[in-house]
Amino acid sequence: MIKDGENRNMTPTQVAKALTLATLEGAFFWNERYPNLDGMVTEREREAIAQAINKQYERLSKLLGERRPIT
Hints:
Layout: E1 2-3, E2 9-10, H1 12-25, H2 30-33, H3 43-63
């Protein structure tokens, strides 16, 4: 049986969901990964990208059965 950090049992599906959401959370740091965009996007476009990431995160977390707060 797979154990999490708090020594609770986890199924392979639960592990896969947790890994998927953890990877998706990395999308919130998109502006750090693409520093070249600084002069290429406006503040309004930057906000639109952040909102789109939030929307996709909400959709996937709902699909995966996770109810995490959006940061």
